[in-house]
Amino acid sequence: MHLHVASAYSLRHGVATPAALAARAAELGMETLALTDRDGLYGAVRHVRACAAAGIAPVLGGDLGLGGDERVVVLAEGAAGWRSLCRLVTAAHEAGGRGAPVATRELIGAHAEGLVVLLGPASDVGRAIAARRPDVAARRLAAWRGTAETVIEIVNHHDAGEGPRAARLLALAREAGVPAVLANAVRYLEPADHPVAQVLDVTRRLVPLHRRHLDDRTGHAYLKSLPEMRRVAALTCGDDEADALLDATRRLAERCVLDPGRDLGMDGVHLPPVEGDAQARLAARCADGLVRRGLRGRRVEERLAAELAVIARKGYAAYFLTVADAAALIRGRGIRCAIRGSGAGSLVNHLLGIGDLDPLRHDLLMERFLADSRTGLPDIDLDVESARRLEAYDVLFDRYGTRNTACVSMMETYRARSAIRDVGNAIGLPPGEIDAVAKAFPRIRASQIGAALDDLPELRQSNLGRGLLGVLFRIAERLDGLPRHIAMHPCGVVLSNATLRDRTPVESSVLGYPMTQFDKDDVEAMGLLKLDVLGVRMQSAMAHAVAEVARTDGTEIDLEAVPLDDPATFELIRTSRTLGCFQIESPGQRELIGRLQPRDLDDLVIDISLFRPGPVASDMVSPFLAAREGTREPAYPHPDLEPILRESLGGIVFHEQVLRVLDAMTGCGLSTAEAARRALNEPAVAAWFREAALARGYDTATVEKVWAMLAAFGSFGFCKAHAAAFAMPTYQSAWLKRHHPAAFYAGVLTHDPGMYPKRVILDDARHFGVPILPLDVNRSGAAWHVEPVSAGGPAGIRVALAEVKGISDAEVGRITGGRPYDSLTDFWERARVSRPVAERLVLTGAFDGIHGPDVPRRDLLCRVGALDRGTVRPPVEGQLPLDMDVTERIPAGELPPMTPAEIVEAELDILGMDVSRHVLGFYDGLLAALGVVRAADLPGRPAGADVLVAGVKVATQTPAVRSGQRVIFATLDDATGPVDLAFFESVQDRCAATVFGSWLMVARGRVRRAGARAVSITAAACWDLSVLHETWRRDGLDAVRALMARPGPPGRPVGRRIVRPTGFAMSPYADIGHAGPSAKRILWHTSGGSSGPLPS
Amino acid sequence: MTRVFGDPVDVLLGGDGRPVRFVWRGRRHTVRRVLEHWVTTRDWWHEQDPAVEAGGEREFWRVEATPDREIGVYELRHDTAAGTWRLSRVWD
């Protein structure tokens, strides 16, 4: 019966989730509960679902700001009220501009149908009462009554003077004959939550904690029970009035109860309109597709008939036509577009041209995607070029109309770092200190702060968590998971009809797109079609590569038409030299590829499916590889299952196999099998399976064995259709790398699709014999491009202007637009870049092509200074009163040329990558003296050998592994290839800080063989190479050896284990990165002030 | 005039939580009327070892009460975390 309740979806105001509020209300014996979040309906759908789960009736409304601190609550009655509420919230966001919604009495009046306005202490009426102006209050109340149905809202949190004010407001209501209700303006569940609300109060206002900044000074804004509300009423206005007030409140709540189906439309789907008989049109389009794809035969026809029948039963024909339309529109604009996810298993999708894989040929099932037993609209996800994702959005908005289309939103929530920052500001810590403390934590949930302080070696020795910081951490933990910022979902778009804005409030996203206030789960619950249009960088990289091939040698490549069995491509993949390729470039994947030795696309599908936490942790990989290598006979639990499990040599890898196994052993059909798969963890399913399988004559031992397999691996399985959809770009990228390497690298370097820094990709290009052409103002483009080293010579790649630190798009545009330049001065006059950018271009050799080796870069640098001093920025475009004499008078060759080391240092600083040569080259002397083994020589070392390795750190990962340890995997690049290292928990106290904190590393460890060619190192110790080098230069090799011989602290486990029902133990810190600042941009060890000397 | 005290008092509450009687310096005072009632949270961010989880508030009752025939105004302060009552101010 609470009518005024803010959940955490009232950003930086409410503390409790809708689910917690509904559960508590039910516990307190209430029959209804309203959610009236501030200026938005972000929590509305969650509230309706939470109320259903708690067995109470939902009321919805909004607490709307009217400018200043003035607010009123509006409640929706019936379908008309919900429509008005959605449109009013949208209008308030439109009126106030992004992030500053503001309603007015007139705006509310324009949407008054079905709305009830509650005027409480924060309304203009309440303010006049507080100011002891009953005359003004009465006038304002009359104005509201002429606008919409109006009710007075009495609130008393027992702040000083609040009780008497509430009594005067009630007197006004009685005098004017306006109904009055009692509310508690709820912000949190229970009294003890008030410190969190107080922190949010000051965080919202960006001020430090002080009583005068608090909205909540009494701790009474909690979800009070009925007796507690009765007491508030009695203390405010006496016993007689109290009962009347509570009765009126209950009556209004009952009146405003909303029915999810009838009032909110949650019982239907609301698709864009399709002309004519959608099912007939779909069938006709599929028939066309059969001809176009050249598919025929009984199997195809039966499958198509089955799919169309399910679609007809569910009434989803319009949905498929819409998605096909959307995909065709996107492709029609020349944007690469691929299907991802379970939708690739549907023949209808293939025939409509949504997906390019033939599901029958790759043995994919429709039921995983669409089945009678699945509820809700099926998900079709489209991958498009990341660089053109918004263009794809524009196509959709144009086609369906901006009123009928909206992006999906998502709530960013408090995590450890953001919580520490906000609480740190509230309790008045200095900004520098807050930054240091926040960055000390890895990217974990705020609720893990305390545990992380104790668990992680890199935090354990820090002495954080004492004194004032202890308070900070305790409050910060309580902000865990609270929404803090609304953002546009990276891919969801809702396509609907003209009723969309009656069903969902819409606001403007940062990029100016209409965005629903509902998230992806909410729009699904509301029966809206959500199309996921994901921007995938690899698609952009491949589009760029294809365009470069067309530009340089005129060959038009259709990647979708490339044969999927090219031997040369698979030969490349089998070497594991797959850096830059989609999905198979990570250290772990390269190791797996090396052992698995893929021969065809189906092998890639298996590879992608095996390289996941579940299969790795359940040790499905080793038996599979053993069977594949022929050292173990594939074992099948029953001959009937052999055809199903043959592709994975006896294991269960795919969801599709789970479905088929269930069907084969119980005869239940694939649709029921899909329902059983989704409920595999429920005991009832186990009982059903045993009974049905025994009834079909399987013996107990077989049934138990199969069930054990299903239970252990089934929930970890991967959707084969999804893996197959992924295998396409994997294969396509490898094909490009093999056949058009320069174009491939140009694409990958421009769009940066992978996990490695660009300098690693660049080094890979060097290994593959692709020449790297330096930056040149007359040749470099905005993006990386392919360029023959000489006429008819091998194709190289030219560094892009966009790589220069701090360069703007406008500057890049002027540089490329004004070419060619015949001198630095000419460039300065016409390209008009900022001085720092001009200096950076000089330092990275962008003018070497014009001025040649006779004019060293340092001289050019002086000229930039002179040009800058001599240039009075012109008041009129084109006038450059420049003293040419001064600038051209500097004689060439006065200053010493830059050394190779200085050049590489400048490249790393400005471009973030070593273009002219590999940075490790400068350490060759020390590395040789220490006897460091290079990556290229590692395969020749026996397993178990103790070695020293070195290199530039290119990646660290802490994935889930079988033992449940937190293992740090690091990859070094030593100019001859990658070196993969594993640091187990026993060495992390000694090594973690160095692994995460340094860029150049030396490590000692034991060689571990992984398959025929791949090698990795189990690390025992590691050091910062720049520190060793400094010691070497200063004190010699013996000092370095002494430093390396120093023992480290003993190890201890990192955190407790999370043990899954299947026995899979996991570290709570798996996959979350590390504590401390990222070392990615720290490219060089520099001393304070100047860039330090490089070893030479 | 106002006088400020901090003396502990024993308070008897009515059914709705209002003070009905209190004993101050051995004398029984009967509450005639509640003039004002308000609560405040503690400034937990200033406290040495803030038990943030405990919450707790101070509740004030300004009442007209009488020990005999004369009526005075008394301010009673209740610390909910500690469960203590004190007489904070007296107007007479």
Q: How would you sum up this structure, described in words?
A:
The complex is a heterodimer of chains A (1096) and B (92). Chain A is of the alpha/beta class and 1096 residues long. Chain A folds into six domains: 18-255, TIM Barrel (Alpha-Beta Barrel), CATH 3.20.20.140; 278-411 and 487-538, no CATH class; 415-481, Bacterial DNA polymerase III alpha subunit, thumb domain (Arc Repressor Mutant, subunit A, Orthogonal Bundle); 558-729, no CATH class; 770-911, no CATH class; 920-1066, Beta Barrel (OB fold (Dihydrolipoamide Acetyltransferase, E2P)), CATH 2.40.50.140. Chain A is built from 46 helices and 23 strands. In chain A, helix 29 (655-666) packs across helix 30 (670-678) and helix 34 (741-751) runs antiparallel to helix 35 (758-767). Chain A is globular and about 95 Å long. The termini of chain A are far apart. In chain A, 50% of the residues are buried. Chain B has one domain. In chain B, strand 6 and strand 7 form a beta hairpin. Chain B has 92 residues and is mostly beta strands. Chain B has a seven-stranded antiparallel sheet with strand order 1-7-6-5-4-3-2, with no helix packed on it. Chain B has strands spanning 2-8, 10-13, 19-24, 27-41, 57-66, 72-79, 84-91. Chain B has no helices and seven strands. At the A-B interface, helix 7, helix 8, helix 9 and helix 19 of A face strand 4 of B.
What is the spatial order of strands in the main beta sheet of chain A?
1-2-3-4-5-6
Overall mean confidence score, pLDDT of chain A: 87
Distance between the termini of chain A: 77 Å
Biggest sheet record of chain A: 6 strands, mixed
